[in-house]
Amino acid sequence: MPISLTHQCLELSKRLFSLEAHKHLSSNALLMAMILIVNGACYSSAQALTFHPRMDQATWLSDSHVLQCQLTQPIPSFGRAVFDSSAGQPLRFYLQSVSSAMAQGQALLQSEAPNWNPALSNVNLGLVNITEGDTPVNLDTVLADQLLNELYKGMSPHFIRRGHLSQARPQDQLLATAPASMTEPQIIKVGLSSVHFRAAYNQYLQCLEQLMPVGFEQLSRSRVHFDADKWQLTAKTMDWLNTIVRYVEADSDIKQLYVDGYTDDLRSGAYNSQLSQKRAEAVAAYLVDKGISAEQVTTRFHGERFPVASNKTAEGRSTNRRVTIRLDKLGAAISQR
Predict the structure, then answer these.
(1) Please, which residues bridge with residue 95 across strands?
(2) What is the pLDDT of residue 15?
(3) What interhelical angle do 28-47 and 3-22 show, nearest 10?
(4) HSE-up of 254 (CA within 13 Å, CB side)?
(5) What span, in angstroms and rounded, lies between the C-alpha atoms of 277 and 196?
(6) What value does the mean pLDDT of the chain take?
(7) Choosing a second label site near 288 at 20 to 30 A (CA), which of 88, 93, 167, 224?
């Protein structure tokens, strides 16, 4: 039943209670019977605002890739719940909604015990923000980990959004130990089921074992450094270049790599130009040798131009002796140095 109809139902119940208080009807017994009937109707309408997979519907999907691991549960008539671990990023959880069922504000996050396990009890996990848009709930790593633990124990986490007419303040919601009453006006519950969770969770853990430790944000603009007058690649440099190669192979969106060589200013301009060229070509040759297409690699050299630190100090000169590698998803012709 739509929220507006639930509101009307509960308003009628309030009016009947007001009549009972002022004894406007001759039969209090008849009035109380009417109140019970109306409240029962309100309860049924409020239940229609619960989104939770039935046991025969509940499923968990594990999506595995070297750049992203996801654990997803479809929630009928609402959307889906997603645990996401992307390369180089912390774990996060979000609800994705196909409708605007949850109003902006705060929701109580409550982990509810299953009826078949009396050894477990409900746990209130605090308040979470509800925002506008197709992902109304976004949780950080701490809460996302907590949800995973609750689901592994067989619990059912619920996001409970109380309506605008509720008299309870947000902090009062944390004091209740029983599940929130479904007869409250405009209440919306979005729940996750632990049915079939463990099997998918084990697949998710296997994905995490092969997830790349760094992502595009860390690799898109990286640099390697060289000793004075040297262009040979060190073991540390080759390890980093191997990481770049692995990422490019996994991410088909990468269209171009720009390799730019630089030096400090201790030698002549001509010498530094040649040295920066050797450094850039050494890096480019290694990338191509490891499997990146030569057509994807653009090599440039700049000598002592464009320093990123002062050449007056040893530390600054060490910083300037570098090759930068930029990954481009658009294939732009000119990079930002």
Answers:
(1) 81, 137
(2) 54
(3) 160
(4) 25
(5) 57
(6) 83
(7) 88
Q: Give DSSP secondary structure letters for 193-232.
A: --TTHHHHHHHHHHHHHHS-S--HHHHSEEEEE--TT--P
pTM above 0.70, yes or no: yes
136, 107 Cβ separation under 8 angstroms = no
- Tell me, rounded to whole angstroms, the distance of Cα 30 from its chain centroid: 54
State how far the Cα of 289 lies from the Cα of 266, in Å rounded to an integer. Answer: 32
* Residue-range domain boundaries for the chain: 3-47, 50-210, 216-328
Fold classification of 50-210 is: Immunoglobulin-like (2.60.40)
Q: Which amino acid is at 125?
A: L
Length of the chain: 337
Q: Which residues contact 186 (CB under 8 A, 6 or more apart)?
A: 3, 6, 7, 49, 103, 162, 163, 164, 165, 166
Q: What digits encode the pLDDT tens for the residues 61-105?
A: 999 999 999 999 999 999 999 999 999 999 999 999 987 778 889
The mean pLDDT value for 257-278 works out to: 97
Return the amino acid letter for 199.
A
Tokens of 238: 């080759």
CATH code, residues 216-328: 3.30.1330.60
Pairing mode of beta strands 105-112, 156-161: antiparallel
What is d(CA 90, CA 44) in angstroms, rounded to the nearest whole number? 41
Closest alpha carbon to 77 in 58, 56, 49, 115: 49
> Are 106 and 174 contacting, i.e. CB atoms less than 8 angstroms apart?
no
Asked whether the predicted pLDDT for residue 153 surpasses 80, the reply is yes
